[in-house]
Amino acid sequence: MIKWIVILLIIAAAASLLGMPALAGAAATGARILIGIVLIIFLLVMLGVFAVA
Predict the structure, then answer these.
(1) What pLDDT digit, counting tens, does each position of 1-47 carry?
(2) Helices 21-52 and 2-17 sit at what angle, rounded to 10 degrees?
(3) Which end of the chain has fewer CB atoms surrounding its CB within 10 Å, N or C?
(4) Do 8 and 28 contact (CB within 8 A), yes or no?
(5) Taking a C-beta distance cutoff of 8 angstroms, is the pair 34, 6 a contact?
(6) 40 Cβ partners below 8 Å, 6+ apart?
(7) What is the DSSP string of 5-35?
């Protein structure tokens, strides 16, 4: 999933430099959503590890 975040951020940066704000915004929003999902999964895993220990 981290790979998709990096790809979307690269697409957003390239689209921004090429003057395509709609595509840049969409890619950045997709990356932001994926970052949120990754953080939630990470926190759930950490809470699970601490609950078991």
Answers:
(1) 899 999 999 999 999 999 999 999 999 999 999 999 999 999 999 99
(2) 160
(3) C
(4) yes
(5) no
(6) none
(7) HHHHHHHHHHHHHTT-HHHHHHHHHHHHHHH
Distance (Å, whole) CA 4 – CA 6? 5
The answer to whether 1 and 35 are in contact (CB under 8 A) is no
Distances (CA, A) of 1 to 6, 18, 39, 50: 9, 26, 11, 24
Q: Which long-range contacts (CB under 8 A, 24 or more apart) does 2-6 make?
A: 2/38, 4/34, 5/31, 5/34, 5/35, 5/38
